[in-house]
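Suppose you are handed a protein chain with no further information: no name, no annotation, nothing but its sequence. What can you learn? This example shows the usual starting point.
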Amino acid sequence: MWWDKYGKPKIKQTFQREGAERNRDRRDLEDHYYDMIYSVIREQLPQTEKAIQLRKLKAKIIQLHSIKRRGALLDTEDRDRITGEIPTLHHYLKSRKRKTKRMTPYVLEKNGIRKMGQKEIMHTFMEHMTQRYNRIKIEERCLQELISCGINKIPMRANSVLEEPITMDELLTAVRKVKTHKSPSHDGICHEFYKMTWEVIKHDMLNVMNHKYKHGSETDPQKRGTIICLPKKVDPGGQDDYRPLTLLKADHKLLTRIIANRLQPWMSDILQSSQHCGRHGNTIIEAVAAMRYTVAYTEVYNEPVCLLTIDFKEAFDRISHPYLYTILREYGFSEEFCKRIQGLYVNTTYTLNINGNRSQPIPIQSSVRQG
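A reasonable first move is to predict its three-dimensional structure. Written in structure tokens, the prediction is:
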């Protein structure tokens, strides 16, 4: 497809070329200002006039560096940043600490052996992630028993709505709702690009999204993500002490957001009323409130009660793809829609980014992507 083969690479090249030219112009202008400072110092001028000119040149140099300093704000957590704030030494120190925390100086294997070389660290993480996202076998008998318990069906009109082409309003809603200041995938195109160039690219993007949605024509590189491993605690050791975070391409996330928005009105028809995740208007706070109400009720009326809390470890990572496709069909989704969802996961790969080094593509044969 032209968007993946020609459009996005050209956009990335344009940004890279523009960034290189701006850096070159900034360095040239900075050198020019310093030459002017040396000239003012050497000139035989009154001290008052010389001080005024030096202050003006200093202000220009500070203004020149202010654009570069904006990157420190983007790499600072929201709680340490105020809208319109000028970057200071505080933001640079925060940014440096965050970068240091993201580094992985070593990793412990299951047998306790410490690996410190970059190749050894990458190899250890690759083995761990390959096992984590390996194919999950499911027993057909257990799956059929689960289905026989009864599964709600979506209304017939839902499939008609899901088969309609994507509209401009749906695409605009998805573009507006995406979060900014998020790291892009390896194509280098972030959400801000779609927001700032909306009036220019909206018709082309609508055609691209409809082509992908109708034909399920996302290429394998388009579905490839980049995984970075963030430490869960101050001094991480083994691979389980890191939280894998997948960076996906912005246009891929726009398409999946549009699909999610289309599914939202029908969630109440197929999900249980007691479920809080994925249901519009339900939040986890309601679950906590229900538990508190139960405890309060038992204390007031002195009645016995049993509260059972079950936490599925790595729940999103332990979902079998064949199981997912089977359940979607049991919910009553059309075969065409199921193929679209399946197309988002077939031949999906990711690359690991550890300390700035990128691994070879590794297949994802289980799990669903969050966010």
